[in-house]
Each structure stands twice: as C-alpha cells, then as structure tokens.
Amino acid sequence: MLRIAITGSSGLVGSRIVELLQSEFEFIKLAHADLDLTKKISVRENLKNLDYDMLLHLAGYTKVNEAEKEKELAYALNVEGTRNLFEATRERDKKLIYISTDFVFDGIRGENRPPYFEDSEPNPLGYYALTKYEGEKVLNGQAMIVRISYPYRANYSEKKDFIRSIRSRLEMGKTLKMVTDALITPTFIDDVAFALRYLFNNYSPEIFHIVGSNSLSPFAAAKLIANTFYLNESLIFPKTFQEYSLGKAKRSQYSEIKSKKNNFYKMIGLEEGLREIKKQI
Ligand SMILES: NC(=O)c1ccc[n+]([C@@H]2O[C@H](COP(=O)([O-])OP(=O)(O)OC[C@H]3O[C@@H](n4cnc5c(N)ncnc54)[C@H](OP(=O)(O)O)[C@@H]3O)[C@@H](O)[C@H]2O)c1
Prior knowledge:
Helices cover 36% and strands 15% of the residues. The protein has 281 residues and is an alpha/beta fold. The chain has one domain (3-280): NAD(P)-binding Rossmann-like Domain (Rossmann fold), CATH 3.40.50. The two termini are 31 Å apart. The site of NADP nicotinamide-adenine-dinucleotide phosphate has 24 residues, from α1 and β4. NADP nicotinamide-adenine-dinucleotide phosphate binds next to α1 and β4.
C-alpha cells in the first residue's frame, strides 16, 4: 500500500480525501498541532526519518480577504511552508503533490482566454493568489501541482463552502445578491479525491487541473442550489462583479478553468454534484 504523508488533513478538502481513500492508501497525517509547516527545522526533522512514499500538501492559509492584511502569515505558510516541505522531500527523493488554485489566473477576458488550461500563464491578482502562485514556483517543475477550484462537499461542520453558505442563507429565508457577470468552476471534492487516486498511482511532476466540468455565474449557481434543495429562488437577486468586489481582495472575474490533461477521471458539473450531495446529506 502506498504510504502518503498529508498536510491539511483536517481541512475542507483534505479530510474528505482521507475519508474516501483511506482503505486504499495509508495516510500519515502531519497535523498542524504536531508540526507547524512554517518551521523549517521542525519540518526537516519530522520528514527525515518518516517512512512515506509521497507527500500530499494541502495545508494552506486559505482566507482570501484576510490575506490582504495578514500578509506575513499567508506568505509564511503558502510560500515558505511549501518551500520547507519541498526541500525536505528533495533531500530524500520523495514525490510531492501541491494543491493549488484557479486563483493563480487573473480571470480577465482577453485573446484566447479564459478558459485557462494547464499551460496558461498565471497572473495572480490578490495576495492569497500571489502566495499560492509563489508556492507553485518554489517547486521549480520538480513536483506535481494540482489546481482545484471552488471545492464543495456534502458534510463538513468546521467550515462552509460556497454551496452551504448559499443554502443556509436561503433556508433562513434571507435574501442574497449574487454576481451575474462572472464565472466560477465549482468542483466536487469527491471527484478531486478519485482523480488523485489515479495521480498517486501515476505520478509525474506536472501541472493538472482537477476541476468541475462546467463554469457558470455565481447567480446561476445559487439558482441551481435553490432548485435542487427546493428553496425559494425569488430570494436571489443579481449584482455586478464590481459591486461584489468593493472592499474585498482582488480576484478572478471569469474563472473558467479547464483541463487538457485529465483524460483519466470524469469530473461532474455543479448540477450533478448538487444531486450527489443531496443524496449524501
Ligand atoms: N477552499 C477553497 O475554496 C480552495 C480553492 C482552491 C484551492 N484550495 C487549496 O486547497 C487546499 C486545501 O484547502 P482547504 O479549503 O481544505 O483548507 P482549510 O479547510 O482552510 O484547511 C487548512 C489546513 O491547513 C492546516 N494548517 C494551517 N496552518 C498550518 C501550519 N502552520 N502548519 C501546518 N498545517 C497548517 C490546517 O490545520 P488546523 O485546522 O489544525 O490549523 C488545516 O488542516 C489549500 O492549499 C488551498 O489553497 C482551496
């Protein structure tokens, strides 16, 4: 059985990956409480004698708006933390998979873009996005990068993904304004896990986009959520991207992200993903 050391295993994405794949792989959890990834020497010491085949690095500073103020924290974890792990794995010739984000792209409409493919040129806008891209660059083409986008799942009490945020607002009978002139590419986390199963077994130090099969506006996504869960869609009102962006970190407007390389696992789109989470809840 492949032994996979994993960071961020308590997080939204990591905990589901472990749940779904733990019967097929042996996960060795590098929990934050035991190892702070920003501490270079501790990381090196911890990984020096660890018996593992591959490291899956999901831990990150993930608060997009707060990152604009907590720059040092975001940089320390997303860039230096990634560097610490990269160096520790290189020392022992171990494989590394770094989970990154569609936010590395600017989402500005131009010639031939979006959509963004694995070989599209990143141009991060906000500070979180910048640190994730700097984290990618640290790896210098010598590790695998898996970019995911708007991940969602059925159950996770610690943190709400965008679907649960919308659902709970509608369930409370509250109105919400959703952006019409932007695109997001929601990704079912279960699909990320199953695509990773393939990548664990077929590792190569390349970039992969593991993302949902369709992109839509947040407004359209909210309507789909309301319809799927029989909630009142008349509570959803339109707003512009410009309105939404006031006072927030800069982010990608048209985040239509696709893959040229994922011919190994069929990702589902939001409509099917919502039906799936409804079954799982
Ligand atoms: N969520 C999204 O919308 C999204 C979209 C695209 C890409 N991604 C990427 O996917 C990955 C996983 O995201 P997520 O949403 O699952 O993250 P998350 O729920 O915010 O969890 C972050 C994880 O990082 C750990 N961590 C934080 N600081 C640490 C430190 N100093 N040392 C060691 N571990 C530390 C946390 O442990 P504790 O809880 O114990 O502190 C937690 O397990 C991230 O790399 C993120 O950039 C996320």
